[in-house]
Records
---
Amino acid sequence: MKKIHYLAVAAVLGLAGAVLTLFILTQHYRASYQQLKMQEQEIIVMAKDYQVMQERILRIEKSAKGENRGVSAMIGELLSSLSISSKLQSVKNIEQKSFLDISRQDAELVVNDLDINEAVNLLYLIEKGSYPVSLRSLEMSRKFESPDIFNLRLVVSYFQKK
């Protein structure tokens, strides 16, 4: 009879140990699962960023394969497509760098007397247009006489294939 009690106690203790072990393992795997889900979300965000960057690189490479016009000619063409070339005050070449098989020319533009629509269209065309150009910096100021008119100082990078 004592042997049966010992076996019963041993079975209950063994069952309790197994349940406790399973509970601890479940908690461990649940924490690991949550950590993996967070890492998956981070990877998804990085994959989207990578895809956007890849599309931008392909757009620049595609548009940079054209004839090598130079930054001044490209800016003139860009502004004339918006019919604001008369508002260009100056274009100043800043620097030229090369990396891999693409060269980059930086230029500073000063465009005066733009209304808000013209300014937005210019910035949109620089960032999303088919020109191999990227906006590096922007300073926007209002005219004192008429606050609806803006002056822009832009630093743009023009990319071209070697």
Note: The two ends are 95 Å apart (CA to CA).
---
Amino acid sequence: MKKRLVFDQRTTTLLGPSSKLFESLKDIQDRGYKVDLILKDWSLELKTKSHKPLLWDPNLHPKDIILNLIKPTFNNIRFVEKENSYKEKLRILIPPFFNRYRFVHYDFVSQFLDKNSIKNLKKDEMHKFLSNPKLITFVRFAFFFLYINFFRNFKPKFKSKGFRYVLSNNLSTKKVDEFIERNKDPKVKNILISVLWDENMRFENQEDRLKGGPKYQKNHDEEFENLKSYIKELDNFATETGKIRFVLASKKAVDWEKFIQSDFVDLRNFEDLGFTMSQSIFIAQEISDVTINWPSTYSIWITNCENKLHLTWLDNKDTAKWARNNYQKKSVNFLLKKLNLI
């Protein structure tokens, strides 16, 4: 009889890394494992210190995604809530060095990284310690070092597999169906853009996140210009033929609206359309044939979706492993041929 796996979301402070565990759930289900998913109370997380609020609601969106997308998609998961006791705080702080079947933040973020990305992860953790060299940060770094380099290697290994999100019955509304039907044309291929671009800081308030995604740097400018050139070619093709259409999905995809001249489906402010976050992700899955990405939380969510092509610029760390490719380095005609448009 197979062991029950435990995934502890409380061990991460960021929504994106906690969502990386989704990528392994299809293989876990296929192999007959049962899963206990310990839910995190995201409302305890501090909101940004800026006067601008977070674009996701800690009280609403994480639970919405878990209960209305993940639960209906996988029937082997049991959701667990723990009391905020001293014992549980220790379980969050200390990695499960000797428990092969318990998975935490370090497992989520590292399980499908390539060697170079693992090196970068180690550098980031070292930088956190060196920038704040206290006893507690040293202990955390020591735990990280031991776990990443040794103990995680004894955990069961799972494959990255694509899947289709299933929306909960109570959110599978007529309004969702009508939006999908209205924006899904068999004669038109929809290309979703999840890449952030908000240089006037309409939504974003951190200067290293105004283009591309988190931690944007000056040496990323060339890659972003390559991305813009690629989308401009697609935009010209869309204008000339009407055979493709863009879908804008991220709220921070502000400046694409001015850059793209062709028609597009606007899913960015999904609340104004009367949808929840889980409904918007499901709609994006159902209407898109291609996704264009840059490392981000949205990339983590959308590149799980099978039966579509996923193109990622800069770095594949947030792209599901099964979906990684080098299509972004090929010509636009290569993609159009894959879509049987030329």
Note: The longest helix spans residues 221-241.
